[in-house]
Design a protein that fits this description.
Layout lengths: L5 E6 L6 E2 L4 E5 L2 H36 L5 H33 L2 E3 L4 E3 L9 E2 L8 E2 L4 E8 L11 E5 L5 E14 L5 E8 L14 E4 L8 E3 L3 E4 L2 E10 L2 E15 L2 E6 L6 E2 L18
Antiparallel strand pairs: 1-3, 1-6, 2-5, 3-4, 5-7, 8-11, 9-10, 9-12, 10-11, 13-17, 14-15, 15-16, 15-18, 16-17
Helix pairs in contact: 1-2
Length: 296
């Protein structure tokens, strides 16, 4: 947004252009401000001449006072006139500096290196200090905002792992919690959590993008089985395991307690243990105790 009001007279950049810090973006008509600066500079020059005259007067009165020709009162008056003139000059100099700084604001420059976004204004448009001229997005690190239900807030800790995933659940980026809000959003009853993302893959993540985030509350080792190896009867999950019986492999059905699905596998919380040989094909033809032969 500009810091001054006026008409846009020139636009120096295009959307999508890479710019360095200080690169001119737009020019707002500075004619009125230039006239103000010129007027104040002329006033400053006039006041500087008054100061020089007051100095000469003070020197003359000082010489005459030393010779006893004029009174001390006249000397004090000359000193006072010089002090007043110098104070007025300093005030004018400050005003001129202020107006010169204001004049610089009529040329809008890039505050940082980045990529120019959409430019909704055109040459000839009148803008105010609330008009959005464009954006300059800095490539690199982004910050993700994750809204966690308030019921899980007591489990939140700094540096907890956070994964950014796409709509299919595929991992896009890894991060860690860098901020936990001390307040609860009154409308959504969620707690704001922030995490920084390096965003090396600039095609997948952009500013103001809605994303899916997965907070890792804890980790533990557990066996997993393919979804196709699991059957469901009512609310219970089952899988066939090949076990050695009298030197032969036979199928035995095991009741499972499964957790979340990760990719195409179920995490098994109970029912089988690491090392068990799970039967993953032809399970629709199996019955408990049927002989099986490993393939491959």
């Amino acid at each position: 947004m500009p810091q001054v009001e006026g008409l846009v007279t020139q636009i120096y950049v295009h959307s999508g252009e890479h710019v360095a810090p200080g690169t001119p973006l737009m020019q707002i008509d500075p004619a009125k401000q230039q006239a103000t600066v010129k007027s104040q500079e002329d006033t400053e020059a006039s006041k500087r001449a008054d100061v020089e005259y007051a100095k000469q007067q003070y020197r003359r009165i000082s010489t005459l006072a030393a010779a006893g020709v004029v009174s001390k009162q006249e000397l004090d008056q000359a000193r006072s006139a010089l002090d007043a003139a110098e104070a007025q000059l300093r005030s004018l100099e400050a005003q001129v500096r202020e107006q010169r700084v204001q004049l610089h604001y009529y040329r809008v420059v890039a505050p940082r290196a980045g990529v120019v976004g959409d430019i909704p204004v055109r040459v000839g448009d009148r803008v105010t200090n609330t008009t959005a001229l464009t954006t300059v997005d800095k490539p690199g690190t982004l910050e993700v905002y994750v809204y966690v239900p308030v019921e899980r807030a007591p489990q939140l800790k700094l540096n907890m792992p956070v994964q950014i995933v796409d709509s299919a659940g595929e991992l896009i980026a890894d991060s860690r919690v860098s901020f936990i809000s001390p307040q609860v959003d009154n409308t959504t009853q969620t707690v704001l959590v922030k995490a920084k993302i390096s965003n090396n893959n600039k095609d997948k993540l952009r500013n103001s993008q809605f994303i899916r985030a997965r907070v890792i509350w804890g980790t533990h080792e557990a066996p997993s089985v393919p979804v196709l190896a699991v059957s469901r009867i009512g609310a219970q999950y089952f899988a066939f395991v090949a076990e050695d019986q009298n030197g032969k492999l036979v199928a035995h059905q095991k009741a499972l307690r499964v957790g979340d699905m990760v990719g195409n596998d179920y995490i098994v919380l109970d029912g089988i243990k690491p090392g068990d040989r799970v039967i993953v094909s032809g399970t629709q033809f199996l019955v408990d105790g049927a002989p099986v032969v490993p393939q491959g």
